[in-house]
Amino acid sequence: MTEEEKEAIETMKRWIEYEKQNKDKINKANELIEIQETVLNLIQKQDKEIEHWKKGFERELEDNRKNTCELLKQDLIIREKDKQIDILKNHIHYKKCKNCGQEFRAKRTDAQYCKKCSTKVNNGNYYKNLSPEQKQKRREQSKLYMRKLRERRKNNV
Ligand SMILES: [Zn+2]
Q1: How far is residue 138's CA from residue 123's CA, in Å, rounded to a whole number?
Q2: How many Å lie between the centroid of ligand 1 and the Cα of residue 116?
Q3: Do the bridges between strand 103-106 and strand 93-96 make them parallel or antiparallel, or are there none, so unpaired?
Q4: CA 118 to chain centre
Q5: pLDDT tens for residues 46-79?
Q6: 1 pLDDT band (50/70/90 cuts)?
Q7: Residue 32's domain spans which residues?
Q8: Is position 39 within any domain?
């Protein structure tokens, strides 16, 4: 309930009190008082119910959060154990990629890059070692390839 709503309820209570004290001056005062009190009780009852459900919902949310944390922890432990088994059984090394920082499985102890980065690094090295003529040829080949690709797309789709 907002502050304004709480204030409105307090004002209504004061009006009911006023009507009770001035029954003789107000037309159909009893009926008016009864209606207002019924509405007021209904509002207050519903407000309590909402609070009750809200608290229950918050508790459930907190429980779910705790369960999720617990599951994540267990998952981490299982994954760590799986890794240990992998290392012992398959003689695998878990290494951090020098390029992207991601962990990867390697058979060799001196592996430095994950599969993706190792292809990239090897291609880069290969390209670096080409002569200027070979580089030019490769550029033209790739341009030709792109042109063919574009044409194929245009004709097909
Ligand atoms: Zn990598």
Answers
A1: 12
A2: 6
A3: antiparallel
A4: 32
A5: 999 999 999 999 999 999 999 999 999 999 999 9
A6: confident
A7: 1-86
A8: yes
- C-alpha of residue 104 to centroid of ligand 1, in Å: 8
Residue 1 inside a domain? The answer is yes
- What is the whole-number distance in angstroms between the Cα of residue 61 and the centre of ligand 1? 38
pLDDT tens for residues 102-148?
999 999 889 999 999 999 988 888 888 888 998 899 889 999 999 99
Q: How many independent structural domains does the chain possess?
A: 1
d(CA 26, CA 28): 6
Tokens encoding 34: 């009864």
**Centre of ligand 1 from the C-alpha of residue 22, in Å:** 85
How far apart are the CA of 107 and the centre of ligand 1, in A? 16
Residue 18 falls within a domain, yes or no? yes
What is the 123 CA–ligand 1 centroid distance (Å)? 14
Domain membership flag for residue 92: no
